[in-house]
Amino acid sequence: MTTDATRFVYDAASAVDPLGDLEQEAEKAAKHNRAKVGSGRPSSLLYTYGPGSIMDLPQFTIMSTGLDDWDRIWRRRDAAPPQIHAPRLREVVRMLLRSPDVQLRPHPWQPKRLSLSTEGNDLGVPARVFPQWLRCTGCDTLGLISQFDYRNTHPFRTDLACFEHTKCTGRAGKRTGKAARRPAVPARYLLACADGHLDEFPYELWVHRGQPCSQAQHPALKMVDRTAGKGASAVIHCGACDMKRPMNEAQGEAGKTKLPRCRGRHPHLDAFEPKGCGNETRLMLVGASNLWFPATQSIIVMPESQQEKASDLADRIRTTLGEKLAKYRNNLDMIRDLLDGSLEVAHLSDEELEVAVEAAAAPTVTPEEQEEQIRDWDPVDLLVPEWRYLLKDFLGAREEDEKSGLTLSKRDRDHALQPEITRVLAVERLRKVNALVGFTRIDDMDRVGDLPRRLAPLTRTPRPAWTVATEDRGEGIFLQLDETGVAAWEERVLATSLWEAHRAAHERNFNRRFSETAANVKADSRLKPPRYWLIHTFAHVLIRELAITCGYSAASLSERLYAWPAAEGREPAAGLLICTTASDSDGTLGGLVQLSEPARLQFVVANALEKAARCSSDPVCSMRTPQDPEDFLHGAACHCCVMASETSCERANRFLERRFLIDLPGSDLGFFTLHE
């Protein structure tokens, strides 16, 4: 069924409502063990196991549902759901989601004051078991979840929760004649399409080659798999007609022609595209790394300017009053009464409140203007305010802003520090806010950015009212490079054959990955400038060296790069922030900030650059240059010398080149000069 509030074919009777189901069982006086069987940290629920992804539990797998189903969790409480205050990020999220009222909310969770208390038990992320085809480990029976029993009886051993085949007689040749309970595991094959759809694999149609079984309406299937870990090695067997078909026929380019077309299913929304999809499908394993890529935006929260404060106040007035704003916009006394308790406006004069109300009542952008904004928007726009604030010359040696959570301290430069580094700040405290705007399958969002349809939605409603976000608190070190030196170096690099080789490799890579839209977009517009390669490589070698002495692992350190040439509306930038953050505590331990002290930082930088001069894969690594038909997006860089973990790198180890950092044998393009 469909309604005006949804853009998909959706049956509301099948909604995921765990707490509602529990209440129905309680009314029937049914006794069940309701022990929790899974949990995740906020960061993992945003970047790894968000809506539409598959999470591995000890005995089965689940999928987090869309945000519509999360609303049922919030509605069970009288109080309004909490919000995360980050106006600058909120405006970008609203634009990308094409919804003017989107708010940022944390995951539904509440800490317990006592370990055995029940507070917060009504909060959690709803999920459904997915895939719902299971295989018995005792007899290889392949069937839907309804053919198996769920068992979760031990209150303190939630890892034992599982689905079981209650009447398993074992495999042929090993049968005992006595039925036994055997655990069932997820059947690991799925169908995915490039537009973000995901579906169960049609095992029954597969084994019968698209036709119904000739012997039974609902035949008994088996999945025989004796070589786990070797791709699609299983064989599907029909017990009624004795037909067999191996799963490896569905692999590769040849396998695509044997698979059905996409039905347009979004299992996290329990919905289908109203007109279907029709794309080619691809065989996907449950644990595949390209099954789910989050599309996120993030900011380091900076102190708000007066303009930003006024804009935020107007927005809060608009969202708080709703339709009452138009009715009472000329009655300031009524406006004050309506806002009393929700917004502090008592300190505002009538003139200030009138200005805020007029701004709140201003018409929103039209859909056409919104699409134009999205086309013209550059992700760098989120970084520009951060860069500008980090360059401000504040009074005193320390600047602290309680509202934003940002604390900066000036650091003197050690006399031996590389002269190319002109400014050092210790970021003693920072708050980073991350928001989810959707996800993609098969390819990461930055690889399919020219195809908006590939961004899978988080809700069934066309205009979501909120999206999930996280707050991370931590510390970091900010370094600014000499802009004059960077500009001169960049001009020199642009004229070299090495840069031309990287540019050509990027064009080949772009055209192959963006085959559907490459004709409409210039590949060079997506190529990062030389200064980005330089600063990116520098950040990676610093992360490796900082991890040795700061007390944090390299995977817990991340980069934030400010690297762009001058453009309309923004000045050039050449700097970086290395930070570590945690989403489930009040902050971090200070070990990273300590390394910003002059002597320690000079030691770290000198060691990092010296180690970058050598790689255990040299001379192969130091001379690596892409040549036609190669399309890799790095040069003298590999996992032995520069590349970092996925949690540290914002570009998946692309755009790295040691020859831009320092001079290597046969190359004199290094920006930094090593001290003798």
TrEMBL record:
Superkingdom assignment: Bacteria
InterPro entries: DrmB, MZB
Positions of the MrfA-like Zn-binding domain: 538-642
Name listed for the protein in its UniProt record: DrmB family protein
Gene: drmB
